[in-house]
Amino acid sequence: YRVFLKSRPGINGVPVASNFALEKTVWPTLPLENEVLVQTLYLSVDPYMRCRMNEDSGVEYTKAWSLGGTITGGGIGVVCVSSCDGFKRGDIVMTAGFDWPWVNYHNFPGEILKVVTEVPKEQLSMMLGLFGLTGLTGCLGVTEKGNIVPGMNQTVVVSGAAGACGSVAGQVAKIKGCGKLVGICGTETKCKFLTEELGFDAAICYRSQNVADNLSSICPNGVDVYFDNVGGEISNSVITCMNKSACIILCGQISVYNEDKPYPPPLREETESFVKKQRISRDRFLVLNYQNKFGETLEFLQASFKAGKLINKETTVHGLENAGIAFIDMMNGQNIGKQIVKVSELKTP
Ligand code: NDP
User: Fold this and answer.
1) What is the CATH T-level fold of the domain 2-129+313-342, as seen in this structure?
2) Which segments constitute the Oxidoreductase N-terminal domain (predicted)?
C-alpha cells in the first residue's frame, strides 16, 4: 500500500484526513544492484508537513508534495533484501532527509540510507522523536539560543509544551539549570502531564485559562526565556510578560500554519515595539543549521534519558492507513509527546 496526496487543503484551509488516500500498489521487485528493499516500521508526522500540502512549500528546506504523489517524511525501517554493500537483512535503516515514502515496502538506493545502531530494538521509534529531529530541536533550541545560566534563577516559558519539541525543551531547560519552568498547552490532561511527570513548575491550559493573567501571577518576576512553538495570541501574551534583554527561541508558529503568512509571521505592532524597547532577541531557530552538533546532542539526550533525567513520551497511531489521520490529530493537539505511526512490527528473524 501507499498513502498519497489526494487533495490540497488550500493555502488558507484546514487540512482534513480526506486530503490523504490509501491505495494498493504492486509488490516491489527484488532490489537492483546498489538497492535495498526495506519494510517500513515507523513514520513521523510533523507540523512542517502542513506547508508541503500547499502547491509551494514556501520554505527552503523541503519541497511541496505533488498531487497524487506518495507522501514522504521521516521514517525508519528494516532491511528485507539487500543488493548493496554495507547492508544486510535485518539491519535497521533511516534516511537523512524528509524522503521516506509512506509505503509498506520500498527499494531505496543504498547511498541515501544509513544503518541505525544508536538504540536497542525496542526504542526504534525514539529515533523519530526524542533521539530524532524533534528531540534535537527541543534540546539545541535551548542550548544554542536559550542563554540559560545555572544559578540565575531564570523563568522559562514553553508553548506547545506537551508536544514533541516542547516537552524536550522544557526538560532540557531544567537540566541546564533554569529556575521556574512554565508550560502552555491545550488540555488539562496535558497540564497534569507537564507538572506531574515532566517536572514543570506550573502549566496553563490556553483553551480554558487566560494565558496573560495566569502568567503574570505565576511569574511575578517576569519571563526570561520563551521557547515559542505556536506564535499568535499565546505568544503575544507571553512576550508582554518578558523582561529586558530576555530571549525568544523562535522554534515554530503552528497556530498560523493554516494561514498564508510569511515565516516568521510579523508580531503585532505594539508587541513588536515592546520587543524593541525591551531589547528582546527573537532569532529564528532552525535545527537543520546545527547538524555539526547533532552527534554530541544525541549523546547528551541518550545519557540524560538513561540517567532518568529525561522522560520520553509518544502517542502512537497504528497502521499505514491511519497515517493521514495521525497527522491531522497531531495538528489538532490529540498527541502528547511525539506523534508516531507504527506501520509494522519488527519481527525477530
Ligand atoms: P507537537 O508534538 O508539538 O504537535 C503539535 C502541537 O501543536 C499539538 O499537539 C497542539 O498541542 C499544538 N497546536 C496545534 N494548533 C495550535 C494552535 N492553534 N495554538 C496553539 N497550539 C497549537 O509538534 P512538534 O513538536 O513536532 O512541533 C512543535 C513546533 O516546533 C511546530 O511549530 C514545528 O513547526 C516546530 N519545529 C521547528 C523545528 C525547527 O527546526 N525550528 C523543527 C521541528 C519542529 P495543544 O494541545 O497544546 O494545542
Assistant:
1) Quinone Oxidoreductase; Chain A, domain 1 (3.90.180)
2) 4-97
The answer as to CATH 3.40.50.720 being correct for domain 133-288 is: yes
CB contact at 8 A, 187 and 333: yes
Beta-carbon count within 10 A of 185 CB: 29
Residues with CB under 6 A from ligand 1: 46-48, 133-134, 137, 160, 162-166, 185-187, 190, 229-230, 234, 251-255, 285-287, 330-331, 333, 335, 339
* ipTM, interface predicted TM-score of the complex: 0.99
Q: What H or E segment, with its residue span, contains residue 218?
A: helix 211-218
Give the per-residue pLDDT at 349. 59
Q: Determine the residue of 229, 312, 329, 335 to mutate for testing ligand 1's pocket, defined as the one with the most ligand atoms within 8 A of the Cβ atom.
A: 229
Distance 340 CA to ligand 1 centre (A): 14
Peptide bond between residue 9 and the one before it cis (omega within 30 degrees of 0): no
